[in-house]
Protein backbone atom coordinates (compact mmCIF):
# COMPACT_ATOMS: atom_id res chain seq x y z
CA UNK A 1 0.00 0.00 0.00
CA UNK A 2 1.32 3.44 -0.99
CA UNK A 3 1.99 5.80 1.92
CA UNK A 4 -0.25 8.86 1.51
CA UNK A 5 1.73 12.02 2.24
CA UNK A 6 -0.83 14.46 0.78
CA UNK A 7 -1.66 15.80 4.25
CA UNK A 8 1.87 17.20 4.39
CA UNK A 9 1.77 19.04 1.05
CA UNK A 10 1.22 22.51 2.53
CA UNK A 11 2.67 21.93 5.99
CA UNK A 12 5.96 23.72 6.77
CA UNK A 13 6.79 21.29 9.59
CA UNK A 14 5.77 17.89 10.88
CA UNK A 15 5.71 17.79 14.69
CA UNK A 16 5.28 14.78 16.96
CA UNK A 17 4.96 14.63 20.76
CA UNK A 18 5.12 10.96 21.74
CA UNK A 19 4.43 10.07 25.40
CA UNK A 20 6.85 7.66 27.07
CA UNK A 21 6.93 5.80 30.38
CA UNK A 22 9.46 3.64 32.25
CA UNK A 23 9.18 -0.02 31.32
CA UNK A 24 9.14 -0.90 35.03
CA UNK A 25 8.62 1.21 38.11
CA UNK A 26 8.72 5.01 38.11
CA UNK A 27 12.40 5.94 38.25
CA UNK A 28 14.70 6.66 35.33
CA UNK A 29 18.23 7.97 34.78
CA UNK A 30 18.61 11.03 32.50
CA UNK A 31 21.55 11.98 30.36
CA UNK A 32 24.36 13.78 32.20
CA UNK A 33 26.96 16.33 31.21
CA UNK A 34 30.51 16.92 32.54
CA UNK A 35 30.57 19.56 35.25
CA UNK A 36 26.77 19.81 35.18
CA UNK A 37 25.22 16.42 35.81
CA UNK A 38 21.53 16.15 35.04
CA UNK A 39 20.21 19.04 32.93
CA UNK A 40 17.24 20.38 34.89
CA UNK A 41 15.45 23.62 34.03
CA UNK A 42 12.56 25.61 35.41
CA UNK A 43 9.40 26.48 33.45
CA UNK A 44 6.03 27.99 34.37
CA UNK A 45 4.79 24.42 34.92
CA UNK A 46 7.58 23.52 37.34
CA UNK A 47 10.87 21.62 37.26
CA UNK A 48 11.73 19.91 33.96
CA UNK A 49 14.56 17.67 32.81
CA UNK A 50 16.42 16.88 29.59
CA UNK A 51 16.30 13.09 29.33
CA UNK A 52 18.05 12.73 25.96
CA UNK A 53 19.74 15.46 23.91
CA UNK A 54 19.21 16.29 20.24
CA UNK A 55 22.76 15.11 19.46
CA UNK A 56 22.22 11.72 21.07
CA UNK A 57 18.82 11.28 19.42
CA UNK A 58 20.35 12.07 16.02
CA UNK A 59 22.83 9.24 16.54
CA UNK A 60 20.02 6.86 17.52
CA UNK A 61 17.93 7.84 14.50
CA UNK A 62 20.86 7.27 12.17
CA UNK A 63 21.45 3.77 13.53
CA UNK A 64 17.89 2.73 12.67
CA UNK A 65 19.04 2.39 9.04
CA UNK A 66 21.99 0.12 9.82
CA UNK A 67 22.16 -3.67 10.05
CA UNK A 68 25.01 -4.31 12.49
CA UNK A 69 25.13 -8.02 11.66
CA UNK A 70 25.65 -7.44 7.95
CA UNK A 71 27.55 -4.18 8.48
CA UNK A 72 25.45 -2.65 5.75
CA UNK A 73 22.20 -0.77 5.25
CA UNK A 74 18.97 -2.59 6.06
CA UNK A 75 17.56 -4.63 3.19
CA UNK A 76 14.74 -2.17 2.45
CA UNK A 77 17.29 0.67 2.15
CA UNK A 78 19.66 -1.05 -0.28
CA UNK A 79 20.57 1.40 -3.03
CA UNK A 80 20.39 4.55 -0.95
CA UNK A 81 23.50 6.69 -1.27
CA UNK A 82 26.26 6.34 1.33
CA UNK A 83 30.03 5.97 1.52
CA UNK A 84 31.50 2.67 2.71
CA UNK A 85 35.05 2.70 4.11
CA UNK A 86 37.17 -0.44 3.80
CA UNK A 87 40.58 -1.32 5.27
CA UNK A 88 43.18 -3.63 3.78
CA UNK A 89 43.94 -6.95 5.45
CA UNK A 90 47.32 -7.54 7.02
CA UNK A 91 49.26 -7.19 10.25
CA UNK A 92 51.31 -4.15 9.21
CA UNK A 93 50.51 -0.88 7.48
CA UNK A 94 52.56 -1.93 4.48
CA UNK A 95 50.65 -5.22 4.21
CA UNK A 96 47.30 -3.43 4.43
CA UNK A 97 48.16 -0.98 1.68
CA UNK A 98 49.37 -3.78 -0.56
CA UNK A 99 46.34 -5.96 0.14
CA UNK A 100 43.76 -6.30 -2.63
CA UNK A 101 41.21 -7.68 -0.17
CA UNK A 102 39.70 -5.48 2.49
CA UNK A 103 37.42 -5.61 5.51
CA UNK A 104 34.71 -3.17 6.57
CA UNK A 105 35.92 -0.27 8.74
CA UNK A 106 33.10 2.29 8.92
CA UNK A 107 30.43 4.05 6.87
CA UNK A 108 29.08 7.57 6.43
CA UNK A 109 25.77 6.29 7.84
CA UNK A 110 27.33 5.47 11.20
CA UNK A 111 29.98 8.19 11.41
CA UNK A 112 29.31 11.07 13.83
CA UNK A 113 29.90 13.68 11.14
CA UNK A 114 28.63 11.63 8.21
CA UNK A 115 30.29 12.74 4.99
CA UNK A 116 32.72 14.98 6.92
CA UNK A 117 34.22 11.99 8.73
CA UNK A 118 38.04 11.97 8.89
CA UNK A 119 37.95 8.38 7.62
CA UNK A 120 36.49 9.75 4.39
CA UNK A 121 38.48 12.97 4.05
CA UNK A 122 41.69 12.77 6.07
CA UNK A 123 43.32 9.58 4.78
CA UNK A 124 46.46 9.45 2.66
CA UNK A 125 44.31 8.15 -0.19
CA UNK A 126 42.66 11.33 -1.46
CA UNK A 127 40.49 9.65 -4.11
CA UNK A 128 37.17 10.38 -2.43
CA UNK A 129 38.24 13.86 -1.29
CA UNK A 130 39.12 14.65 -4.91
CA UNK A 131 35.74 13.34 -6.07
CA UNK A 132 34.00 15.53 -3.51
CA UNK A 133 36.12 18.53 -4.49
CA UNK A 134 35.29 17.98 -8.16
CA UNK A 135 31.57 17.61 -7.44
CA UNK A 136 31.49 20.80 -5.34
CA UNK A 137 34.09 22.77 -7.27
CA UNK A 138 31.51 25.14 -8.71
CA UNK A 139 30.69 26.42 -5.22
CA UNK A 140 34.19 27.69 -4.43
CA UNK A 141 33.40 31.32 -5.24
CA UNK A 142 30.40 33.52 -4.57
CA UNK A 143 27.27 32.63 -2.59
CA UNK A 144 26.64 28.94 -1.96
CA UNK A 145 24.01 27.52 -4.32
CA UNK A 146 22.09 25.29 -1.90
CA UNK A 147 20.39 23.40 -4.71
CA UNK A 148 23.71 22.30 -6.18
CA UNK A 149 25.02 21.40 -2.71
CA UNK A 150 21.86 19.41 -1.94
CA UNK A 151 22.03 17.60 -5.28
CA UNK A 152 25.64 16.52 -4.69
CA UNK A 153 24.99 15.43 -1.10
CA UNK A 154 21.93 13.48 -2.22
CA UNK A 155 24.10 11.70 -4.76
CA UNK A 156 26.83 10.77 -2.27
CA UNK A 157 25.12 10.56 1.16
CA UNK A 158 21.37 11.22 1.34
CA UNK A 159 21.40 11.03 5.15
CA UNK A 160 23.39 14.27 5.23
CA UNK A 161 20.29 16.09 3.97
CA UNK A 162 18.31 14.75 6.94
CA UNK A 163 20.82 14.95 9.80
CA UNK A 164 22.91 17.86 8.55
CA UNK A 165 26.41 18.30 7.19
CA UNK A 166 29.25 20.74 7.73
CA UNK A 167 32.16 20.29 5.32
CA UNK A 168 34.64 22.30 7.35
CA UNK A 169 37.52 21.97 4.89
CA UNK A 170 39.33 24.98 3.46
CA UNK A 171 39.66 23.22 0.10
CA UNK A 172 35.87 22.79 -0.14
CA UNK A 173 34.47 26.29 -0.74
CA UNK A 174 36.55 27.65 2.11
CA UNK A 175 34.72 25.55 4.71
CA UNK A 176 31.36 27.23 4.00
CA UNK A 177 29.36 24.16 2.93
CA UNK A 178 26.74 23.58 5.58
CA UNK A 179 23.30 21.96 5.78
CA UNK A 180 21.25 22.21 8.99
CA UNK A 181 19.35 19.25 10.42
CA UNK A 182 15.99 18.67 8.77
CA UNK A 183 15.00 16.04 11.34
CA UNK A 184 15.61 16.73 15.01
CA UNK A 185 14.44 15.03 18.18
CA UNK A 186 14.90 15.15 21.95
CA UNK A 187 13.28 13.75 25.08
CA UNK A 188 12.14 15.90 28.02
CA UNK A 189 10.40 15.15 31.32
CA UNK A 190 7.99 17.52 33.07
CA UNK A 191 7.05 17.68 36.74
CA UNK A 192 10.21 15.91 37.84
CA UNK A 193 11.42 15.04 41.32
CA UNK A 194 14.73 13.62 42.47
CA UNK A 195 14.66 9.98 43.56
CA UNK A 196 17.80 9.77 45.70
CA UNK A 197 19.30 6.37 46.43
CA UNK A 198 22.71 4.76 46.73
CA UNK A 199 24.67 1.60 47.25
CA UNK A 200 28.09 0.18 47.92
CA UNK A 201 30.74 -1.57 45.92
CA UNK A 202 31.57 -4.53 48.14
CA UNK A 203 35.02 -6.06 48.53
CA UNK A 204 34.45 -9.32 50.40
CA UNK A 205 38.19 -10.12 50.34
CA UNK A 206 39.52 -6.91 51.86
CA UNK A 207 36.74 -4.49 52.95
CA UNK A 208 39.30 -2.06 54.45
CA UNK A 209 41.51 -1.99 51.34
CA UNK A 210 42.85 1.17 49.68
CA UNK A 211 39.87 2.49 47.73
CA UNK A 212 42.00 4.64 45.41
CA UNK A 213 43.55 1.44 44.08
CA UNK A 214 40.16 -0.19 43.59
CA UNK A 215 40.09 -2.24 46.80
CA UNK A 216 37.78 -2.00 49.82
CA UNK A 217 34.11 -1.21 50.26
CA UNK A 218 33.07 1.98 48.41
CA UNK A 219 29.69 3.56 49.25
CA UNK A 220 28.12 5.85 46.66
CA UNK A 221 25.08 8.11 46.25
CA UNK A 222 22.86 8.04 43.19
CA UNK A 223 20.21 10.44 41.89
CA UNK A 224 17.49 9.18 39.59
CA UNK A 225 14.22 10.97 38.76
CA UNK A 226 10.47 10.48 38.60
CA UNK A 227 8.24 12.53 36.32
CA UNK A 228 4.61 13.36 35.68
CA UNK A 229 5.26 13.20 31.93
CA UNK A 230 8.07 12.02 29.65
CA UNK A 231 7.79 13.10 26.02
CA UNK A 232 9.75 12.32 22.87
CA UNK A 233 9.62 15.35 20.57
CA UNK A 234 10.33 15.05 16.84
CA UNK A 235 10.46 17.87 14.30
CA UNK A 236 10.76 17.36 10.53
CA UNK A 237 11.35 20.59 8.59
CA UNK A 238 9.35 19.93 5.42
CA UNK A 239 10.06 23.42 4.11
CA UNK A 240 13.79 22.76 4.24
CA UNK A 241 13.39 19.49 2.33
CA UNK A 242 11.32 21.20 -0.37
CA UNK A 243 13.88 24.00 -0.50
CA UNK A 244 16.55 21.58 -1.66
CA UNK A 245 14.85 21.70 -5.08
CA UNK A 246 15.54 18.04 -5.81
CA UNK A 247 12.16 17.17 -7.30
CA UNK A 248 9.17 15.19 -6.08
CA UNK A 249 10.81 11.73 -6.01
CA UNK A 250 13.78 12.88 -3.93
CA UNK A 251 11.53 14.90 -1.60
CA UNK A 252 9.33 11.85 -1.07
CA UNK A 253 12.38 9.69 -0.35
CA UNK A 254 13.73 12.10 2.28
CA UNK A 255 10.33 12.41 3.99
CA UNK A 256 9.70 8.65 3.96
CA UNK A 257 13.22 8.00 5.23
CA UNK A 258 12.73 10.47 8.10
CA UNK A 259 9.42 8.87 9.07
CA UNK A 260 10.99 5.42 8.79
CA UNK A 261 13.75 6.43 11.20
CA UNK A 262 11.24 7.71 13.74
CA UNK A 263 8.98 4.67 13.43
CA UNK A 264 11.82 2.14 13.77
CA UNK A 265 13.17 4.08 16.77
CA UNK A 266 9.88 4.05 18.70
CA UNK A 267 9.16 0.43 17.74
CA UNK A 268 12.54 -0.64 19.14
CA UNK A 269 13.46 -0.95 22.84
CA UNK A 270 14.22 2.56 24.10
CA UNK A 271 16.87 1.57 26.60
CA UNK A 272 18.82 4.79 26.57
CA UNK A 273 21.22 3.74 29.34
CA UNK A 274 21.49 1.19 32.17
CA UNK A 275 18.76 2.74 34.33
CA UNK A 276 16.69 4.43 31.63
CA UNK A 277 14.49 1.90 29.87
CA UNK A 278 11.44 3.57 28.32
CA UNK A 279 8.40 2.47 26.34
CA UNK A 280 5.86 4.31 24.18
CA UNK A 281 2.78 5.06 26.30
CA UNK A 282 0.20 5.18 23.50
CA UNK A 283 -1.21 2.76 20.95
CA UNK A 284 -1.45 5.19 18.03
CA UNK A 285 1.12 7.85 17.14
CA UNK A 286 -0.28 10.95 15.46
CA UNK A 287 1.27 14.32 14.75
CA UNK A 288 0.42 17.52 16.61
CA UNK A 289 1.06 19.44 13.36
CA UNK A 290 -0.51 18.89 10.92
CA UNK A 291 -3.08 17.56 13.35
CA UNK A 292 -4.10 13.95 12.89
CA UNK A 293 -1.37 12.79 10.52
CA UNK A 294 -0.70 9.22 11.65
CA UNK A 295 2.82 7.84 11.65
CA UNK A 296 2.71 4.91 9.18
CA UNK A 297 3.85 1.45 10.18
CA UNK A 298 7.43 0.34 9.61
CA UNK A 299 6.29 -2.11 6.93
CA UNK A 300 4.35 0.56 5.02
CA UNK A 301 7.34 2.90 5.14
CA UNK A 302 9.77 0.13 4.11
CA UNK A 303 7.60 -0.74 1.09
CA UNK A 304 7.37 2.92 0.13
CA UNK A 305 11.09 3.42 0.50
CA UNK A 306 11.95 0.47 -1.74
CA UNK A 307 9.88 1.94 -4.57
CA UNK A 308 11.17 5.47 -4.05
CA UNK A 309 14.82 4.42 -3.86
CA UNK A 310 14.35 2.61 -7.16
CA UNK A 311 12.81 5.75 -8.69
CA UNK A 312 15.78 7.84 -7.48
CA UNK A 313 18.42 5.23 -8.27
CA UNK A 314 20.06 7.22 -11.05
CA UNK A 315 20.61 10.19 -8.74
CA UNK A 316 22.37 8.23 -5.96
CA UNK A 317 25.56 6.20 -5.71
CA UNK A 318 27.03 3.78 -3.19
CA UNK A 319 30.73 4.63 -2.94
CA UNK A 320 33.42 2.34 -1.55
CA UNK A 321 36.76 3.79 -0.50
CA UNK A 322 39.90 2.63 1.34
CA UNK A 323 41.43 3.93 4.56
CA UNK A 324 44.77 2.22 5.16
CA UNK A 325 46.41 4.86 7.36
CA UNK A 326 47.90 4.09 10.76
CA UNK A 327 44.92 4.32 13.12
CA UNK A 328 47.19 5.42 15.97
CA UNK A 329 48.24 8.51 14.09
CA UNK A 330 45.60 11.24 13.81
CA UNK A 331 45.70 14.39 11.74
CA UNK A 332 46.62 16.36 14.87
CA UNK A 333 50.12 14.82 14.71
CA UNK A 334 50.75 16.57 11.40
CA UNK A 335 49.07 19.93 11.92
CA UNK A 336 47.60 20.34 15.41
CA UNK A 337 46.41 23.91 14.96
CA UNK A 338 44.57 23.34 11.68
CA UNK A 339 42.98 20.07 12.79
CA UNK A 340 41.78 21.46 16.10
CA UNK A 341 40.09 24.35 14.34
CA UNK A 342 38.30 22.20 11.81
CA UNK A 343 37.25 19.63 14.39
CA UNK A 344 35.84 22.29 16.69
CA UNK A 345 33.78 23.78 13.89
CA UNK A 346 32.53 20.39 12.72
CA UNK A 347 31.43 19.45 16.22
CA UNK A 348 28.48 21.82 15.87
CA UNK A 349 26.77 19.29 13.59
CA UNK A 350 27.40 16.12 15.63
Descriptive terms for the model:
18 strands, seven-stranded antiparallel β-sheet, 350 residues, 2 domains, alpha+beta, three-stranded mixed β-sheet, 27% helix, 10 helices
Characterization of the model:
- By secondary structure, the chain is α+β, with helices and mostly antiparallel strands.
- The chain has two domains: 6-192 and 227-349, no CATH class; 200-224, no CATH class.
- It contains ten helices and 18 strands.
- It has helices at residues 54-63, 93-98, 118-121, 127-135, 146-156, 160-163, 238-243, 248-267, 298-311, 336-346; strands at residues 13-22, 32-33, 37-38, 40-43, 46-52, 66-67, 72-73, 82-88, 102-107, 165-167, 177-179, 183-190, 193-201, 218-226, 229-237, 270-273, 276-280, 318-322.
- It has a seven-stranded antiparallel beta sheet. The chain has a three-stranded mixed beta sheet with strand order 9-8-18. A two-stranded antiparallel ribbon has the order 2-3.
- A hairpin with a 4-residue loop joins strand 6 (66-67) and strand 7 (72-73).
- The longest helix has 20 residues, at 248-267.
- The radius of gyration is 23 Å and the shape is globular.
- The two termini are 35 Å apart.
Amino acid sequence: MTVDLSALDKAPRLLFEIPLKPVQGQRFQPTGFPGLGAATFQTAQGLCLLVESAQSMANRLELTCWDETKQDTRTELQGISHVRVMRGLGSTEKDRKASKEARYLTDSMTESHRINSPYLLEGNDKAFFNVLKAELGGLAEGPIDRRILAEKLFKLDANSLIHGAFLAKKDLAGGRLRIARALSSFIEADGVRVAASGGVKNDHVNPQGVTKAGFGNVPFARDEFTAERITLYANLDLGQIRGYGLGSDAERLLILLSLYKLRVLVDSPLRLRAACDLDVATQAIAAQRPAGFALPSAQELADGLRATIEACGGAMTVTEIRFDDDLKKGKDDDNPEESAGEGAADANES
